[in-house]
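#struct-pred
JK: can someone run the complex with dinuclear copper ion? inputs below
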Amino acid sequence: RFERLWFGVSLVLIVAFIGTIIYGAVGPGIAMVDDSGGTVEPSVIADGNYEQTNNFREPGVYDTEDGVEVYVIARQYFFQPGTTEPIRVPAGEPISFHVTSPDVTHGFNLAGTNVNTMVIPGQVAEFSVTFEETGEHGIVCHEYCGSGHHTMEGQVVVV
Ligand code: CUA
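RT: done, structure tokens with the ligand placed:
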């Protein structure tokens, strides 16, 4: 008498099960699409702050009267500057970093220092660090950001 009910229940369970499998298979597929997806140009970042927006158009090291300011764009799969050219900063004075991302969440970890921040798309991660000694520090992206994540690294050179 309850056979129909049990048949129905097991049918629902089977459908749910298959649904889970399909979701598991399609989920990563969606992430892959995001990887190669559209790129927002940095100029739209930090909207409303002209100076900041302008600096991200020309990311790099700025020696201002308020100190050294470094503007970095983290994107799949490099730091600009940092990867193709090292970020060169002086030792013994506070360096203000501004790091943003136009695509997905990245990480900004400076080896041998306590610098360790997330870089969220459309937001600017800001921190100040003083390098007491000259030398080199690797920049590591420690947030999974796609197929090239493990290759995403750079370098800070303290002179
Ligand atoms: Cu960028 Cu991982």
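RT: quick notes.
Strands lie at 60-64, 67-75, 78-80, 87-89, 94-100, 106-110, 116-119, 124-130, 135-140, 153-158.
The chain has a mean pLDDT of 82.
JK: thanks, will look after standup
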